[in-house]
From TrEMBL:
Domain Carbohydrate kinase PfkB per the UniProt entry, residue ranges: 2-179
Family per record: Belongs to the carbohydrate kinase PfkB family.
Gene3D superfamilies with a match to the protein in the record: 3.40.1190.20
GO molecular function list: kinase activity
Pfam families assigned: PfkB
Keyword list, A-Z: Kinase, Transferase
Descriptive protein name: Carbohydrate kinase PfkB domain-containing protein
Signal peptide: none
Keyword 4Fe-4S among UniProt keywords: no
């Protein structure tokens, strides 16, 4: 096993699932397996206070974390503004890296011109600095699965031996954008297709 990935929805399902998550994380760490965690906060499942207590226990075991500036401010209680800025995100990532010893972190920032026209920028923190993808505008067909496609794209890049941080975030953002442009909740595009899309920045998906 190369990576053990956990969604924040799992510990949100109750104390027993939080405890099971912690057991699995400790086992992964003892075996030298990389741990990936997507905060995935869902207000309908638990309160910010409950999430904070769980995340504070989980994060010290995490190598790669998918976490936004709002997660830091509203869940973990770090100082920050509601309005997004790359500078603030990098500062929060720096603080989290020092506090929890997280190696890499990532998130996206979305702007919506309309319900069907969105723009997406990906951000990847490599442990020392923040890398941003280009902002990609696209016509939205299905939003479900876009976040998972970004996360899987980051992990795919991290597992490559020779990918630079910029290539990782560009690939992940391209993967997410492509998922938004087709129906269904899973990403059907292979590595070669995503790389071609990133290189050409062509929003016309070939079917």
């Amino acid at each position: 096993m190369d990576v053990f990935h956990v969604s924040g929805i799992t510990p949100a399902l109750g104390p027993a699932m939080h405890n099971l998550t912690m057991t699995a994380l400790k086992e992964a760490a003892s075996r030298g397996v990389q741990v990936s965690f997507d905060c995935n906060y869902r207000a309908k499942l638990w309160s910010p206070e409950e999430a904070k207590a769980s995340f504070e226990a989980i994060l010290p075991y995490v190598d790669t974390c998918f976490i936004s500036h709002k997660d830091f401010v509203y869940l973990l209680g770090m100082d920050g503004d509601e309005v997004f800025s790359p500078e603030q995100l990098e500062r929060l990532y720096d603080q989290a890296a020092r506090k929890y010893q997280i190696s890499t972190m990532a998130s996206t920032h979305r702007t919506a011109a309309s319900a069907s026209s969105n723009s997406l920028t990906g951000y990847y923190y490599d442990g020392s600095r923040l890398h941003a993808s280009s902002t990609v505008s696209f016509d939205l067909l299905e939003r479900v699965g876009g976040g998972d496609s970004f996360a899987s794209g980051i992990l795919h890049g991290v597992l490559q031996e020779n990918w630079e941080p910029q290539q990782i975030v560009d690939f992940a953002t391209g993967s997410s954008v492509l998922k938004h442009m087709v129906y269904g909740d899973s990403n059907q595009f292979d590595e070669a297709y995503v790389l071609q899309f990133v290189e050409n920045q062509d929003n016309d998906v070939k079917r």
